[in-house]
What does this fold into?
Amino acid sequence: MLIRNLDIKDFELLFKSNYKKLFVVSYRITKNKNASEDIIQELFLYLWESKKFKTDKLTFENYLFKSIYNRSLNFLRDSAKHDTNFDLAEASDIYTKDNLSEADYELLETSIFQSIENLPPKCRVIFIMSRIDGKQHKEIAEILDVSTKTVENQISIALRKINSSISPEIKVLFDGVTSLVIVVLIK
It folds into this structure.
């Protein structure tokens, strides 16, 4: 399927045939009808304008679902920055109520926070200041008297170590969404 070869009617059919399924995915995450509708429309607008996507139908559908999933999580993250009443419990509801059992969620959360505790001291401090305390890289660099590049590198190292320290058994439970869950749990 090559989008640039589709006329407007074919593209509209592609939109309509996938809309309901994509809406369900987005709404389960955002719990916001208008946001979910906007997320889907923005994705299809991007696809229409870029006309760069070439693939078979199955891969294209996987791309659509992964894009909607990521864009919906981005919406939650961005909403959290502007909503002073937003907390970890609200963000993690999408996992505890809809997708995960309470025991699975606790297993993942424990694994992630244990991984954070096992980081080298400097790496752990920088990671916590950035991801949990919400400080900017520049601010962390000034407080710790290091360069912003050091802060960026330490955060990158921390994310890699956290991801690699989560056991394959836990990752299998969550079907490869662990890195996305980490963002929600620690933002």
In short: The chain has ten helices and no strands. The first helix runs from residue 8 to 30. The domain at 88-186 is CATH 1.10.10.10 (Arc Repressor Mutant, subunit A). Residues 83-98, 176-187 have pLDDT under 50 and may be disordered.
